[in-house]
Structure formats: C-alpha cells, structure tokens
Design a protein that fits this description.
The protein has no helices and 9 strands. It is mainly beta. The chain has a domain at about 15-105 and about 135-150. The protein is elongated and about 70 Å long.
Length: about 150
C-alpha cells in the first residue's frame, strides 16, 4: 500500500499505516477423529508513529510484527464440540511506553507553559502528556482459550 498525502506540493507517508501486510489461514480436518486444526496469522510491515515533540523518545517507526493463533476443535456426535487454542503465540506487544504518561491519565503531574504546552520537568523529562496515538498493536499478550459448543438443529 502506498498511502500518503500531499502538503504544499510535498508527498508524505501517512502515519500509522503499514506499507504491506499479509494474512494467512491454514486448516486441516482429521475426519475420522473429528479433529480440526486452524493456524491463522497476520504479518504487519513497519508503520510511521507520531511523536509529540523533539523531546519524545518513543519509537519513530513500529517494528515488523506478527500475530499468530492456533485453534484445535474436537467434534462429537449430537452436534457437540470442544475447542481450545492459543492466541498471539509469539507474545508480541508494543513497547510499554507506547502510551505516553499512562501513569498520569489526567496530566496532574505535567507542568505547562503560558501557552498550554507541556514543559520538561524532573518527573516528566520529555514534556509529554497522556498520549495513546502510538498504539499500533494490541496490548494483549499470549493467552489460552477454551470452550464448548452445542448446535441446535
């Protein structure tokens, strides 16, 4: 993808949009055993990330990352199934500082100048306010899931 905008005749890449991505789904059913295995995933290219100021030390660009999932389903007679699996197998999460000043959601510890701009202080050396704009992936790491289904005809 080549998503961009033009400002004053200059072409600029759009923030928070990867240039490429890939999606896959591999599944196989063992009919005699009543077992189905699904392996799904996404691979995301790097994204430009917004920074609040020149002092902002967070990432300027996201890493290439992948979210992969596995599910196994066992079917029984009488329309009954058990399933379980693992989401985010690689346990990818964005850096902890993706949400700037997350410990101060109401900016109570932020000092501002007369123009209302955050200024550097001992407890906020990068002059940041709460800012979730760098959230380029889910904060949920690896997790197990399981359940059962009953189909009514």
């Amino acid at each position: 993808m080549n998503v961009n905008f033009t400002n004053n005749g200059q072409k600029q890449r759009q923030l928070l949009i990867e240039r490429w991505s890939m999606v896959w789904n591999f599944g196989y059913t063992f009919k005699k055993q009543g077992v189905k295995i699904n392996y799904t995933g996404n691979l995301y290219g790097s994204k430009l990330l917004p920074l609040r100021s020149d002092l902002d030390k967070r990432l300027k660009q996201s890493p290439i990352h992948s979210i992969q999932n596995l599910q196994i389903t066992k079917s029984f007679k009488k329309n009954f199934q058990f399933y379980g699996g693992l989401k985010n197998i690689l346990n990818f999460t964005p850096p902890a500082n993706s949400v700037a000043q997350s410990f101060d959601p109401f900016d109570k510890q932020v000092k501002f100048d007369s123009n209302g701009q955050a200024i550097s202080a001992p407890n906020n050396p990068y002059a940041l306010t709460i800012d979730p704009t760098q959230m380029f992936a889910s904060n949920q790491g690896r997790r197990l899931f399981f359940g059962m289904r009953y189909f009514i005809n």
